[in-house]
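Bug #2210: token dump truncated for DUF1023 domain-containing protein?
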Amino acid sequence: MQPRRLKKTLISAAVGVAAIAGTAGFAAGSQTAMTGPPPGAAAFAADTGLDPATSTPAQVARYFDSLSPAEQRKLAAEHPATVGNLDGAPVKLRLAANHQSLFDSRDGQLERLEERKVLAMDPRGRGQIAEVFGDLDKAEHIAVLVPGSDTDLRGYNNAHKQGAALQKSMAKQDPDSAVVVWAGYTTPEGVGVDAATGRLADAGAPRLVSFMKGLSATTDPADPPALLCHSYGSVVCGKAAADLGPKDADDIVAFASPGMRAHTAADLHANAQVWAARNDSDWIGNVPNVSLAGLGHGADPVSAGFGAKDFSAKGAEGHDGYFAKGTDSLANFTSIALNDYEEVTPR
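Reproduced locally. Full output below:
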């Protein structure tokens, strides 16, 4: 890189961090990414011979298919924390196992989740969760929403509202549709080094791939799911894209994105169509798209040179307003998730 260009890039990176800090609040702390198998995996492996740490979702699905319904229920009752977080285990069994875990937790902050459809729930660290809206077992169309920074087991209300709004919009056109909000990775807190680098995305991407392959093994929609990726969630989706097969995701939608750790959509090597959107009032649009020494997430997904299909987010306001009623963004998310691509309005 020429000295003048290097200097310009360094200045852009500095301006980017300053813009983020000034707009959204700076957090200097570094998060410890929660990775590895579900809680209680060793005991589960000792009892079953199936090791959650090394088994693929397809192998898990085949194992549970070999059990009778009574044997499945017994296993979930004995190992609820593991079965509830085991990609490839039957959906209803995971929901029941997590309901039991929440009931047994004696944690007042978690009791509010008992009446929800919780497909994954790991209380370790800041906690991770996946929640279902609709009926996954009957769903003809499925959307998976990957939220961004500050989303965890207890700081989850905004993502919950977004998932509920999307499923309500989809159900108006297709009652047999479902949404999963997947907060199954350690997100950045505030905006700082964690939000400006790909470290947490690197840790979260394999977890997202496993989850999506688990859905492929246990559900039978008419079309593969649509993956909707908000803010830092789009960084995770970008890192996961190449490892998602054609049956795992039909569409990858990056919105309010700081970048996907790629120069172009083609660089993602995705087996899915890549889409992008951002509204004009979203502060993320003021952050320079740079990538230097691990800082920054690369090209702007809504730029013409990136090569994603962009669409309108008219009516949405700010960084989190994309699911508001009457917005183009919500209507377009719905059309993409239902494979009604001709209804998607361009930017």
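Output looks complete on our side. Residues 38-116 form one domain. Marking as cannot-reproduce; reopen if the truncation happens again.
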